[in-house]
Amino acid sequence: MGQVNVKIVAVVIALALAGPALAEEPVRTELIRLQKETGLTLASFYRNVQTVKFADREVSQEAVFHPGGVPQEGHLSRDGTRIALVIATGNRDYLAVGGRNGTGFRLYPEIVNPYDICWSFDHSALVLQSGSQPSPALLKLDVASGLTLKINQSSYVSSQCWSPDGRQFVYDSGGSIRVYDLDKRESREIAAGKAPTWSPDGLWIAFLEDGAFYAIRPSGEGKKLLFQSSDVRSPLWWSPDSRFVAYICSAGSRKLAEILSSLPAVLQLRVRRLVDNSEDYVSEIPDKGYVPSYQWIEPNGVLPENLKGKYEGKHE
Amino acid sequence: MALGLNHAFWVATGSDGVPTTLSGGPEPPYGKNEKLNEWATPVHKDATQEAYAQAGKASWDSGISAAVCSAVDTMENAVKNWPMNLIPYSPLGLWLPNSNSSASLLNQISGFNAPQPPGTFLGWNFNWGAMFSAIFH
Domain for residue A6, yes or no? Predict the structure, then answer.
């Protein structure tokens, strides 16, 4: 009898050690299920909101009411309720921030030619690029007051630059991954690379170096290889629970006409589940010189678990 | 480039001083419902965009001067106001336009009348007048 019990315990331990990877469904199957259950999706904005439908690998398009001008690129907040738009009027572009439903838009005429916009978790701040060449500036914008803080020049941020507590953000400048501390008002280098993104659980910063995605602790320690992919065209976008990552890479030419003519080929938006490296593509994008910036949207889960209650109620 | 054929796009710096890629292509990337869309993207938006702009070989250069600002602004505004998801697309650019056709249209709109880039015979000489007549009349 005792021997039987030992065997049962051994089997249970073996299953537990195998982890969820072997037991889990394929990554796209899980994404389809999560989209039905929670509304989880990937969304981008160029002239309108484009939302990925995992089941058929297509995008649905949705117009956003805005305060005049023609919206160009836009960036949604993590819960999908707020949007920061680049509005084209005449010979300059400016920033407008408001509700995705068209309410409460505010214009920021002092933010000239904005791009690379990143929402903080609590919607209170943006980090963005602003200004004309040769001296664009990386700015932190307080959404409510309109006050800006100039951080640096010639720097890039992704759509997932903020630490969950909103006190730091990550950017890359000249091939250096840097974390800016708003309390100390100083930045520190944590690695060499580009296109950094901060995981919503706060534990990792992913970045791209020589065609491979790495993750490193925000302290600058514990660098590890996540995976390699050919012809990567984007940062790594973390899902709200930090279990999935999405990115864009070349899919190669798909049509004979493209092969013959070198007309724009196809990019793929791919999702990888980190626990078992199960990966699939969820959408295809023409390789036409514009690579969209995606954001995971979870309508009912804007904040990481450890921050729920801390920021809820601050959302505009 | 494949088989000597090229995809044409513009890199333009207008009065806002922002070097911008003006490029067209199909959306969705294949299928029966492809539309010819246009995107205006700052060249320095990120490393990917810089690489795209630098990968092309310039076939014509207006030079930088105040004299061309107005024409470049016209071209940029045409892209920023492009009727997205309206104009049908065909990769061959014969009876329907392709991305080279959109680059050619910007050439006409701006008044630059730059010479046809090499390897763009698919689509560059597309008849936009007939297309606009069909869409807007």
Answer: no
Residue A217 is part of which domain span? Answer: 37-307
Residues 23-42 of A with CB under 8 A from B: none
Res A312: pLDDT: 39
pLDDT above 90: percentage of residues in chain A: 64
Q: Is residue A3 part of a domain?
A: no
- Helix (H) / strand (E) containing B77: helix B69-80
Which residue type occupies A143? V
Please say whether the beta carbons of A130 and A139 come within 8 A: yes
Q: Is B128 buried (19+), middle (13-18) or exposed (0-12) by CB count in 10 A?
A: middle
Nearest of A291, A302, A314, A272 to residue A76 by alpha carbon: A302
Helices B99-110 and B128-136: crossing angle, nearest 10°?
Answer: 90
Q: Could you tell me the maximum CA-CA distance found in chain B, to the nearest angstrom?
A: 43
Under an 8 A CB cutoff, do A91 and B14 touch?
A: yes
Domain with residue A198: its CATH number is 2.120.10.30
Q: What would the mean pLDDT of B78-93 be, rounded to a whole number?
A: 92
- List % helix, strand, coil for chain B (3-state, nearest 5): 35, 20, 45
Size of interface A-B (CB pairs under 8 A): 126
Min distance A310 CA to chain B CA atoms (Å):
33
Query: At a CB cut-off of 8 Å and minimum separation 6, what does A100 contact?
Result: A49, A64, A76, A80, A81, A82, A83
Contact list, B100 vs chain A (CB under 8 Å): 263
Question: What pTM was estimated for this model as a whole?
Answer: 0.86
Determine contact: B118 vs chain A, CB below 8 A: no
Within a domain: A28: no
Structural domain tally of chain A?
1
